[in-house]
Amino acid sequence: xxxxxxxxxxxxxxxxxxxxxxxxxxxxxxxxxxxxxxxxxxxxxxxxxxxxxxxxxxxxxxxxxxxxxxxxxxxxxxxxxxxxxxxxxxxxxxxxxxxxxxxxxxxxxxxxxxxxxxxxxxxxxxxxxxxxxxxxxxxxxxxxxxxxxxxxxxxxxxxxxxxxxxxxxxxxxxxxxxxxxxxxxxxxxxxxxxxxxxxxxxxxxxxxxxxxxxxxxxxxxxxxxxxxxxxxxxxxxxxxxxxxxxxxxxxxxxxxxxxxxxxxxxxxxxxxxxxxxxxxxxxxxxxxxxxxxxxxxxxxxxxxxxxxxxxxxxxxxxxxxxxxxxxxxxxxxxxxxxxxxxxxxxxxxxxxxxxxxxxxxxxxxxxxxxxxxxxxxxxxxxxxxxxxxxxxxxxxxxx
Length: 399
Ligand code: NAD
Known about the structure:
Radius of gyration: 20 Å
Largest sheet: 7 strands, mixed
CATH architecture of the largest domain: 3-Layer(aba) Sandwich
Low-confidence stretches: none
CATH class of the largest domain: Alpha Beta
Bound molecules: nicotinamide-adenine-dinucleotide
Distance between the termini: 26 Å
CATH topology of the largest domain: Rossmann fold
């Protein structure tokens, strides 16, 4: 993932004619905090926070708990955050954090101790005007609430603006849970409208029906009931129905802890889902979902990068050459950080906005960023991912 991101960065910096120093700088983080967390019972974990760029505002980005977290992964994700916040025009920078841990192997007590010690290791480097972390894979509002509490104990800060993605009761924003999926829908439908295909009913499939994928589908069900969800997958199985699946029912099934292998109805594999004859393929699982090994099987005209880097560099080149449209991650999945930003604004002003107000602001950012992307691609005849990176770098380096 790091290599692919750097390849796009090289192309984008070259296109903008940025000098060698800037080219080097964009690949380097401003600061990297690497430390070890020791639990009272003797277990130890590697912990990271990479602060990539803060030229537009405080560092912003999630904290991931996963056994495969590495410093390189956190570096890449922090770079993508700087590009994302710039691409959608937020006054924020980019950062990312992670702990190399499988949280399912910890008790709740251990998880809380780990979380509080992560904040103890970092508290001097984060804060409402410095670096504002959020949840990511395997972290949630409860974990963030522990972080806020620990941060407050250590620093006395009571604004709760030091973290976003908090529970609603603890200063979180309405609309945050659905924001990433909703943002992806807004970007895709805006793109289709700009192309003149806004009225066309679409058949679509969602790879990775978790938080992001399921809210993408339930938002579509609400906004575009004429569209048909024909398949949805988790890491093991995809459910399929050519006549259409019920997004709300699938979301409820997953929220209750169900696995699609136990869902009533026809099943296909994830690879078969990628190759379906649909109009739109929504990639909301993990990185590298479409790569050399399966790019030639893709039939969908439109792909939406809801996960970070789900389409590899080579697959981008191949598919764009064949006129597929790929809405790039730094815009498609920016809805989460946009509503995180709105949460931070509400906390600082001591306000609580309605879900409608949050959704209206989200729509404004998503539409504006998608219009910029559309215009740049139309004027410059370049791939959409490259265009997204160029637009973000222009804002980062004021070009
Ligand atoms: P999640 O854990 O809720 O959901 C991920 C889903 O993908 C799960 O259903 C899982 O079973 C499935 N999955 C995992 N591996 C798969 C595979 N190989 N094939 C098919 N399905 C697979 O996570 P999420 O919060 O929905 O995030 C999904 C992706 O979106 C991640 O890459 C994350 O970094 C990115 N993202 C999330 C947000 C957010 O607000 N949650 C914001 C921006 C980007």
